[in-house]
Amino acid sequence: MKRHTTAALIVAVGLLAAGCSSSEGGTKDEGKADPTAAVLKVARTYQEAKNADDWRTACGMSSERQRYGTVEECVESNTRHSPSPTPSSSSPSASASPSPSPSPPRYADGSTPHPQESRTTGGPERADLGPVVASDVVEAPAAGEHPAGYGVLVTYTVQWPGKPSTKTLHALRLIQESGAWVVDQHERISESDASQGSPVLTALSGG
């Protein structure tokens, strides 16, 4: 009887140890958070901010490389200043040559931002921009100065008064910087990119 009791105790202890090991393994796997939801949220919020000319938000969600300086410098270089009133014919400066336009901001890789569908000084006040949709998260390998991260497709419609609606597609590269997901690359997807197997990776790799 004593031998049977000892054997049963050994088996019970072994099962308990196996159960603890299995439980610990499951906890470890569960600790690896899927970044998809966080990446999609950042990409959507970033594009919404750009579409609304909310540069403080957009610059704050950009990497140091993408904003090419501090957040304040990024905001300053992208903010559209209100046009000055047209001088009257009697004004001494009316016949003066217009001041040169400031150079467009440049990213660290030498590229410049694409023109935004925004307010204009002469035509319609603003194009009608549809909701931003973020999707198609893919792992993006390093390319040039950009480190490996995740690529996201963002789309929205653009419709100027009296013109048919068109769809705009962008590819964003998101990386982690100081523990937060930020946008490190922003590329417009061309028609040739859209015909590729992965438009996002094609755009982020430079075609």
From the structure above, extract its key features.
globular; alpha+beta; 207 residues; 20% strand; five-stranded antiparallel beta sheet
Polypeptide structure, described:
By secondary structure, this protein is of the alpha+beta class. The protein has a domain at 34-79 and 107-117 and 125-207: Nuclear Transport Factor 2, Chain: A (Roll). It contains 7 helices and 5 strands. It has helices at 2-30, 36-51, 55-60, 64-67, 71-78, 191-194, 199-204, and strands at 128-129, 133-140, 149-159, 166-177, 180-188. Strands 1, 2, 3, 4 and 5 form a 5-stranded antiparallel sheet that branches. The longest helix is centred in the N-terminal third of the chain and has 29 residues, at 2-30. Mean pLDDT is 75; it is low at 5-13, 15-29, 82-102, 107-111 and 118-124.
Which helices and strands occur, and which strands form pairs?
Layout: H1 2-30, H2 36-51, H3 55-60, H4 64-67, H5 71-78, E1 128-129, E2 133-140, E3 149-159, E4 166-177, E5 180-188, H6 191-194, H7 199-204
Antiparallel strand pairs: 1-3, 2-3, 3-4, 4-5
Summarize the structure.
By secondary structure, this protein is an alpha+beta fold.
